[in-house]
């Protein structure tokens, strides 16, 4: 009697199922693992960028504020450094002018209420000759503040100091009352927006410059101003150069890099900053990136 043949079942072995599951798992995991790899590669860069930014933003807090406010002279010049309550001045008795004036302006200080006194007086700390009111009489020039009185409304003492002749230069009336004044007002806006601003400014004087008055006050050819916003993210700096003539154009037309001002003045600004930070912010100037 013939026995009927048993049909073979097509059941797969457990080993085959395991192998197939492993292959499917690997296929699914490949894009996931690749994504994790890309994330891990990017994360150190983000952390590094954040760390660099933190270093930049902390640079001002970690440094001596006074050091940032004091430029380093790269060319010999006569000077007497005087520290007043509201500003520091490098006074040049040969020119009867400041080489530079520097100060920090905070948000709170920019909103002071002290009234302007308009009484220009001799700086009692100056050693040597200095200008008087008579030197400016009928000279055709304004007594132009370097540290403006409107930035010194936070104290009667600093308001008085702002009218020292060590803080004053002969300025064309349409510079003092227009472009220079407009920049002073804009900087107060920046101080309010950024919480604090460092300002360094002064005259650029040619050799054998013309003079005014009996005390022979040198007439500057140009004026410079450099501004550092240490708490901005990222930290930024900007420079301005004005001819000692009427200045009626928009402020953006007078913008230059801090590096350019350093070349013109023979000074090194904001030297205590880390070189990487200083080199970056001083080589770049974009007026549009500052608060309106």
Automatic annotation (TrEMBL):
It comes from the Bacteria. Residues 84-276 form the ENPP1-3/EXOG-like endonuclease/phosphodiesterase domain. The chain crosses the membrane at residues 20-39. Mg(2+) binds at residue 176. CDD domains: NUC. Keywords: Endonuclease, Hydrolase, Membrane, Metal-binding, Nuclease, Transmembrane, Transmembrane helix. The keyword rRNA-binding does not apply. The active site is at residue 145. Residues 83-276 form the DNA/RNA non-specific endonuclease/pyrophosphatase/phosphodiesterase domain. GO terms for molecular function: endonuclease activity; hydrolase activity; metal ion binding; nucleic acid binding. This is Endonuclease. It comes from Bacteroides faecalis.
């Amino acid at each position: 009697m013939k026995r009927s043949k048993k049909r073979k079942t097509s059941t797969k072995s457990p080993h085959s199922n395991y192998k197939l599951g492993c292959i499917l798992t690997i296929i699914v995991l490949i894009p996931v693992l690749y994504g994790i790899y890309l994330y891990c590669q990017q994360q150190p860069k983000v952390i590094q960028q954040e760390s660099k930014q933190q270093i930049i933003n902390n640079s001002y807090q970690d440094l001596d504020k006074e050091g940032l406010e004091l430029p380093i002279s790269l060319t010999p010049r006569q000077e007497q450094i005087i520290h007043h309550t509201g500003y520091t001045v490098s006074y040049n008795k040969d020119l009867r002018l400041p080489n530079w004036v520097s100060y920090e302006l905070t948000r709170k200080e920019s909103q002071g209420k002290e009234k302007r006194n308009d009484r220009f007086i001799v700086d009692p700390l100056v050693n040597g000759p200095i200008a008087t009111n008579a030197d400016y009489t009928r000279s055709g020039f304004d007594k132009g503040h370097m540290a403006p009185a409107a930035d010194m409304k936070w104290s009667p003492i600093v308001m008085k100091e702002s009218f020292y002749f060590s803080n004053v230069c002969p300025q064309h009336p349409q510079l003092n009352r227009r472009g220079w004044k407009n920049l002073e007002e804009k900087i107060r806006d920046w101080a309010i927006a950024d919480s604090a601003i460092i300002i360094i400014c002064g005259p650029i004087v040619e050799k054998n410059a013309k003079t005014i008055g009996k005390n022979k006050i040198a007439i500057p050819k140009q004026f410079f101003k450099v501004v550092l916003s240490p708490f901005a993210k990222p930290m930024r700096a900007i420079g301005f150069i004005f001819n000692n003539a009427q200045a009626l154009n928009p402020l953006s037309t007078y913008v230059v890099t801090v590096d350019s001002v350093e070349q013109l003045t023979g000074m090194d600004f904001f030297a205590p900053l880390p070189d990487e930070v200083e080199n970056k912010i001083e080589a770049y100037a974009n007026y549009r990136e500052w608060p309106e």
